[in-house]
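Subgroup meeting minutes
Present: P.N., E.W., G.H.
Scribe: E.W.

1. P.N. recapped why we're keeping a running log of single-chain structure predictions: easier to compare across weeks, and new members can see raw inputs and outputs side by side.
2. G.H. added today's entry (180 aa).
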Amino acid sequence: MNDPVNAPATPALPELKSAPLDVTQIQAILPHRYPFLLIDRVVEIERMKKIVALKNVTINEPFFQGHFPGFPIMPGVLIVEAMAQAGGTLLLTEIEDRDEKLMVFTGIEKARFRRPVVPGDQLRIEVEVLTWRRIAVRMGGKAFVNGKRVCEATLSCQLMDRSRESNSSSSRATEGEAGE
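Output recorded in log:
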């Protein structure tokens, strides 16, 4: 009865891989929710290679209250997070049991911030897979406003179980190895 080949799994969303995804479809893939879901729409997906997503930046974003009063600028780290979420959307569509997994940051390299992103802007986020291994991925991300690059970075991430028990035992093993 336990046939892994025919067992029901989280759908791989084949019909969504070439079509646009709205925010509801994105939420079916990513665990992020308001106020930390930072992509609004996916306009292009090339399976295991590339994704293009949009983020509509509005004055209602909670971070604008303190960054900066009177001169609101989207924090660069959140632009990088939006790139990671776009990449995570691409990667998690390939994971059958994605409801039991998380895609987490393991590195950010070569981050450059070229122009401020302000309320009213629409970020176009383009992420390409550089390396894809079984549980680890490196991606190159770029964000644009009106065709001008505002940010770029190389992102690394890793797939891990959502279960705290299995993660805490694996992190204890890693800590033990690091101390040797």
